[in-house]
Specification:
Elements: E1 5-6, E2 9-11, E3 18-19, E4 25-26, E5 29-30, H1 34-45, H2 51-54, H3 76-82, E6 85-87, E7 90-96, H4 103-109, H5 112-115, E8 119-125, E9 130-136, H6 142-151, H7 173-192, H8 194-198, H9 206-227, H10 229-240, H11 247-266, H12 274-297, H13 304-307, E10 311-316, E11 319-324, E12 333-336, E13 346-348, E14 352-356, H14 358-361, E15 367-370, E16 374-375, E17 380-381, E18 386-390, H15 399-403, H16 416-444, H17 448-461, H18 465-484, E19 487-489, H19 493-499, E20 503-507, E21 513-524, H20 529-539, H21 545-553, E22 563-569, E23 573-578, E24 581-586, E25 603-608, E26 611-622, H22 626-634, E27 638-642, H23 650-656, E28 663-664, H24 669-681, E29 686-690, H25 696-701, E30 704-709, E31 721-724, H26 731-764, H27 770-796
Parallel strand pairs: 20-27, 20-29, 27-28, 29-30, 30-31
Antiparallel strand pairs: 1-2, 2-3, 4-5, 6-7, 7-9, 8-9, 10-11, 10-12, 12-18, 13-16, 13-18, 14-15, 14-17, 19-31, 21-26, 22-23, 23-24, 24-25, 25-26
């Protein structure tokens, strides 16, 4: 038979609920309602019935409703307000799905493209219960997608009144109600037990004893099944998904204590442990509430508005100024240069733009946009600079989501402390259950009363909270401390990776050299003021450090000159048609410079109307304390410099980097990527520090990729962190700080091990009451949080604040 019989009940093939009869069926498969039957048919039609192999009863019970409830999604204005992105036939949208609850949900929702061909991609954030969908509007409508999700049992929560205000989670009043209920019942049970506490004879009166006993059963049941319901729900959900969480031992202990108490009252062999049980639950709830308050107060969920260091150029009455994203508001006009990412949904003010939306849709072909059209956050301008007007505040943009997209995440598994903690946590609860059973068996034949007390104490007092809390709080606080000092990391995983690096690779231009300081001199055939204006009109559109320096040098020659066919070629240079004349600015080979000038100096070469004219010699100014940084890093790390420039400054760099094989010049982006791979193949843990332009591939390939930000910053989602230029000289101390954070985690893990050995030993020996266990367990969790936060705060004092 394809369906199961349990206690003469027929079980639904989809959701596992009992069926009233067998009237709704497909062959031998029986369903409890038409909704579940519909979902099964959809899965069967699309060859997705492997869904049921992941979990025997993975589905949710479906309430079949009319599709007309989503009729409002036929309104184009409403649809446009919901969409995250729309370009041509491609659109993206995300929804909150409250009913996501297990791995089967994740598996099915990421297979939507097999059910509806118009859906190109669907990604699920399990922890946030969100789904991100990319689809073709010519093939499927948004209404149809929502109807599909609803028919599968994953009806999305759709808000039509989206605002830019930061939402604060509503207070969960049920916690207070449960604490109040537990406190009320516990105090009354203790009041009825007061004569027994004092050894008064009144408790021996059968009428009173029996009455108080049954009242205690009722009050105890209320506390157990109402106030403590969250523990049961959590444990049951974990078991359904085939894993054991920390709530399971607590539930077993509470159930054992309640069952024993009911038995004693009914058989008149004792008064039970209702006072201890209700007091235990009361303090567990208070502990859980207090933990939540502590965690909320110390929450390190990164709000990129607070410190995300991406800056753009805002224009106010023709005056340009660099501002951070958090300072942008709707209506601001900003400049987006070549290869810069659009930070928020905006309207194009320039005549034309060519936008690469590959970070959003995966399609790299630039899309031509005309004045007045909408440009979506995450698109990258590929040609000359453009003017745009912000239409949505940056709080609604997708830059941070883009930075944390799994496409740009490192493809590495957990190692070191994190792997050890995960392994220990997985086996902790199972070991705890074995110990508790052994404890109960030992005491049962000595003292039955103590057996139940010891069992409950063991199950409750043990706590692997250091494993669950120390890593996110230690590394989270580390991220917060580093942010105050100019380093902004993608995630907590980067902290541990940073602590393990043994090789550091620097890009040169814009990384160890200053962008806004350089001695510039022109050598070659004399240039007229008009030609200097033509060069300026070309370089001002680029964010490359050399282009920025040259644009500042030629600022006085700025003029309104037409520019067409602009293009920026990585590691080569810029090309464009300026007033009908072809202008090239870049490397010697790119501008056809003669051989005798290719190695003269570090410079930017110029070709006008296909004729080589000369070069701008740029004497780089290196960052302060660079020599000290190199000395600190060289103590225990190998250091390299990869530069796309020629070797004209090799003699000076050799005084800073004494290793003869540490300097590499004329490196293309492909060369840099290959070099990082070779180091990793040799077993090295590599930190790459670059400017995010010509080294994006190397930044992504490295174990940790840090991009340097100075003034207007060209955001690259390939990096793991963004380092303020003023903090480059602190890099060695940053690495030491990360090592200190890892050490703090190890210390808390040791504390967790010692704590559990001590308290479990005491509980096994019957030295803890369940009530004492309920107080000690949450207190230990709070102590762990405070320990790692205080430790990392003290370590951070050794780091200077951002200049």
């Amino acid at each position: 038979m394809a369906y199961q019989l349990v206690s003469s009940q027929v079980i639904c093939q989809h959701c596992g609920d009992s069926c009233a009869d067998q009237s709704i069926c497909i062959g031998e498969h029986v369903f409890c309602c038409e909704g579940c039957k519909t979902v099964y048919e959809i899965l069967q039609e699309n060859d997705l019935c492997a869904y049921y192999d992941i979990d025997a009863k993975p589905g949710l019970k479906i309430k079949f409703r009319s599709d007309e409830r989503y009729a409002y999604l036929d309104n184009e204005e409403i649809v446009s307000s919901i969409l995250d992105f729309k370009e041509g036939d491609i659109a993206t949208v995300h929804f909150f799905i409250p009913s996501i609850h297990c791995s089967s949900c994740l598996w099915l929702l990421e297979k939507l493209y097999k059910i509806e061909p118009g859906i190109q991609r669907s990604d699920v954030s399990f922890t946030k219960k969100e789904i991100f969908i990319t689809y073709q509007e010519s093939v499927i409508t948004l209404r149809r997608i929502v109807e599909l999700l609803s028919s599968l049992g994953y009806a999305p929560s759709i808000q039509l009144d989206k605002t830019n205000k930061k939402e604060h989670p509503a207070t969960n009043r049920s916690v207070y109600y449960k604490i109040a209920l537990a406190g009320f019942c516990s105090s009354n049970i203790m009041l009825m037990s007061f004569p027994e506490y004092l050894g008064l004879d009144i408790v021996q009166e059968q009428n009173y004893a029996g009455l108080f006993g049954y009242i205690s059963i009722v009050l105890g049941a209320l506390v157990l099944f109402v106030a403590a319901s969250e523990f049961y729900t959590s444990a049951w959900s974990a078991l359904k998904n085939k894993f054991i969480n920390l709530d399971l031992p607590i539930v077993i202990g509470m159930t054992a204590l309640f069952s024993r108490s009911v038995y004693e009252v009914i058989t008149h062999t004792g008064t039970g442990y209702f006072d201890s049980l209700t007091g235990l639950i009361f303090f567990l709830l208070i502990g859980k509430w207090y933990q939540g308050k502590v965690y909320q107060a110390m929450s390190f969920e990164r709000d990129y508005q607070s410190y995300f260091p991406v800056a753009v150029t805002r224009v106010i009455d023709t005056v340009q100024q660099a501002v951070l994203l958090k300072d942008l508001v709707k209506g601001d006009e900003i400049i987006i240069r070549s290869q810069e990412i659009i930070p928020a949904d905006a309207v194009l003010l320039s005549e034309v733009a060519y936008i690469d939306y590959s970070f959003v849709t995966g399609e790299s072909t630039p899309v031509k946009k005309l004045a007045g059209e909408i440009l979506y956050a995450g698109g990258r301008q590929t040609r000359e600079k453009i003017h745009i007007r912000i239409e949505k505040e940056v709080v609604q943009s997708q830059l941070l989501q883009l930075w944390n997209d799994e496409v740009f995440a490192k493809k590495t598994s957990k190692t070191g402390v994190s792997a050890l903690a995960d392994s220990f946590a997985r086996n902790f609860t199972i070991a705890l259950l074995i110990i508790s059973i052994a404890t109960f068996g030992y005491w049962y034949f000595i003292d039955v009363h103590k057996a139940f007390s010891a069992l409950t104490a063991v199950l409750i007092v043990a706590c692997p909270c250091a494993l669950a809390l120390s890593i996110p709080f230690a590394y989270g606080n580390t991220i917060r401390m580093l942010a105050k000092r100019g380093l902004f990391l993608r995630s907590t995983d980067v902290v541990e990776n940073m602590a393990t690096v043994d090789t550091v690779v620097f890009d040169k231009t814009g990384t160890i050299t200053k962008v806004d300081a350089a001695a510039i001199q022109y050598e070659g055939e004399a240039l007229s003021n008009k030609e200097k204006s033509m060069i300026y009109s070309l370089v001002q559109h680029s964010t490359h450090p050399l282009s920025v320096k040259l644009a500042a040098f030629l600022q006085q020659f700025a003029a309104e000159i037409s520019l067409t066919d602009f293009n920026e070629i990585a590691s080569k240079g810029l090309i464009g048609n300026v007033s009908g004349v072809a202008v090239r600015v870049g490397s010697a080979s790119f501008t056809n410079a003669p051989d005798d000038q290719k190695r003269i100096a570090s410079g930017v070469y110029v070709s006008i109307d296909s004729v080589y004219r000369g070069y701008f010699s740029i004497q780089n100014v290196y960052r302060e304390d660079l020599d000290l940084l190199v000395k600190e890093l060289a103590v225990d790390k190998k250091i390299y410099v990869l530069s796309g420039d020629n070797n004209s400054e090799q003699a000076y760099l050799a005084t800073l980097f004494p290793e003869p094989d540490a300097l590499f010049f004329n490196q293309t982006p492909e060369d840099k990527l290959s070099f990082i791979k070779q180091l990793q193949q040799a077993g090295k843990r590599v930190l790459m520090v670059g400017d995010g332009l010509n080294d994006a591939g190397a930044l992504k390939q490295s174990d940790v990729g840090i991009s340097v930000s100075e003034n207007v910053y060209n955001f690259s989602p390939s990096c793991d962190g963004i380092l303020d230029a003023s903090a480059v000289s602190f890099l060695s101390r940053v690495i030491r700080f990360c090592k200190g954070a890892v050490t703090a985690v190890k210390a808390t893990l040791l504390f967790s091990l010692l704590y559990n050995v001590v308290v479990i030993t005491m509980a096994v020996n019957g030295l803890f009451t369940p009530l004492a266990a309920a107080i000690i367990m949450p207190a230990s969790s709070v102590f762990v949080v405070l320990l790692v936060v205080i430790s990392t705060n003290r370590l951070a004092r050794r780091l200077p604040l951002k200049k």
